[in-house]
Amino acid sequence: MRKETIAAISTGMTNSGIGIVRISGEEAVLVADRIYRGKKKLCEVKSHTINYGYIVDREISSAEKKSEEVIDEVLVTVMKAPGTFTGEDTVEINCHGGTFVVKKVLELVLKNGASPAEPGEFTKRAFLNGKMDLSQAEAVIDVINSENEYALQSSVSQLKGSVKKKINDIREKIIYHTAFIETALDDPEHISVDGYSDTLRSSAEEIIQELERLIHSADDGRVIKEGIKTVIVGKPNAGKSSLLNVLAGHERAIVTDIEGTTRDVLEETIKLGGLNLNVVDTAGIRQTEDLIEKIGVDKALEYAETADLIIYVVDASRSLDENDEKIINMISDKKSIVLLNKSDIDTVISAEHIKEKVSNIPIISISAKEERGIKDLEDKVKEMFLKGDISFNDQVYISNVRQKNALLEALESMKKVIRSIDDNMPEDFYSIDLMDAYESLGYITGNSVGEDLINEIFSK
Question: How many angstroms separate the CA atoms of 396 and 252, rounded?
């Protein structure tokens, strides 16, 4: 890790009420004192205090007379190590938020002894100084990028150490058994492993269950973080575009009584019940000779193949035909919801008609025109993807592919332990696979990662 005192602008580069320049390192206070003017020098104030004063540019004229230019009126926060985010002395200069003045303050800080911080370097130093583990460090960027309520709650839960605690608990169980086996093998006269395989098997099965729960949570974690890839399908003029407009809260798609109005794919990110739906509105699926419309239909089928959720909009005022049959066959083995639209007028299709063809798919009556049934749709989506209401108090959600892969590796190692026990293998084999699982889990918290990976993660 670099030992230089570093500095960077910690707020967005746009005009705002407040802008913050952060300094971290052994000489943070000394650097700030060179450009600060207040009642006391910053080196004389107590830790974790806010100090009023000015940032000044002190220069020596050619006649060797001191001169200084006031740059801005500021509040300066002084925080002494180790009780800081980075674990180092930290100074935050709160100045006015104009981009020019914030840049000017940073230039002065750099001119007076600090080095420019590399991307993610403040959080990297917090990790390297033991202020957080790697899962918490990764949660910092997730908090910043959160786009819905659940994503924010999940990221804050990880930032508070939910993943760290769970992984450390599992690692402690693994290392306990590893240490016992290694000690017994080194001192067989005093410590016996007779019958220990039964104890180990019971514990290994519990660990496997915990790992499987965490891996399973990654599906919910991905949905929470990235959103649900959702495709709206149906016959032409069934109300797909009207539904998209209702969900989006504005006129995203052109709606007419003319069949085939939507010919291309429309995409919109929609917030529904605290989740993000990455919605794709497709061309109406039907047999057509129109070349452009046919391309749109082919795209609709292609998007539906890879969707997390298919919303099939049925015009309940018209009888089912061969186009509906084609759609029903397509969605029968996929996670789908059927919406019986146009419930505000006389209908000829009921939920019973649809259930005869797809008994395993939920059916909801709606009116996109009158915006009825949307809450039922919201509740059903939450039930399908989050098993209803979720809590971040006692449930850990894995939302990181790197962490999931490490869990899968640890799971495979623990299953090898079980296989070794079943095959009556020597105890040496148990400890080898236990240590592999231990190291894989350490990859999540940062205990078992190399410098290259650390640099890659924090550069993002």
Answer: 36
**pLDDT band at residue 256, thresholds of 50, 70 and 90?**
very low
Q: pLDDT tens, 382-418?
A: 888 775 555 555 567 787 889 999 999 999 999 999 9
Task: Spell 304-342 as b/e; 16+ CB within 10 A means b.
Answer: beebbbbbbbbbbbeebeebbeebbebbeeeebbbbbbb
Per-residue pLDDT tens over the stretch 104-122: 999 999 999 999 999 899 9
Please tell me the distance from the alpha carbon of residue 158 to that of residue 171, in angstroms, as a whole number.
18
Taking only the tens place, the pLDDT of each residue in 62-78 is 455 556 789 999 999 99
- Non-local CB neighbours of 99 within 8 Å, separated by 6+ positions: 13, 14, 15, 19
Q: In the predicted model, what is the mean pLDDT of the chain?
A: 84
Residue 426 is encoded by which pair of tokens?
A: 């020597």
Q: Quick one: CA dihedral 178, 179, 182, 188, positive or negative?
A: negative
pLDDT for 263: 41
Which residue do the tokens 């801005």 mark? 72
Distance CA 158, CA 138 (A): 9
**132 vs 150: CA distance, rounded Å:** 22
Looking at residue 283, the DSSP 8-state letter turns out to be: P
CA gap 244, 372 in Å, rounded: 14
Residue 83 structure tokens: 């009780």
Q: What's at 342, amino acid-wise?
A: K
Alpha-carbon distance of 371 to 111, in angstroms, equals: 60
Q: Which residues contact 387 (CB under 8 A, 6 or more apart)?
A: 220
CA distance to 19, 70, 91, 370, per residue, from 12 (Å): 8, 23, 18, 41
Go through 115-128 and write b for each residue having 16 or more CB atoms within 10 A of its CB, e for each that does not.
bebeebbbbbbbbb
Which residue in 107, 81, 105 sits closest to 93, CA to CA? Answer: 105
DSSP state of 373: S
pTM of the model: 0.71
Task: Please report how the helices 162-186 and 134-145 are oriented relative to each other, as an axis angle in degrees rounded to 10.
Answer: 160
Polymer length in residues for the chain = 460
Query: Which H/E stretch holds residue 444?
Result: helix 427-445
Distance CA 343, CA 372 (A): 9
What is the number of other CB atoms lying within 10 angstroms of the CB of residue 421?
18
8 A C-beta contact, residue 104 and residue 71: yes
Residue 115: strand, helix, or coil? strand
Q: Report the amino acid identity of residue 87.
A: G
Q: What is the residue type of 329?
A: N
Alpha-carbon distance of 48 to 77, in angstroms, equals 7
Name 272's bridge partners.
275
Q: What is the DSSP letter of 284?
A: P
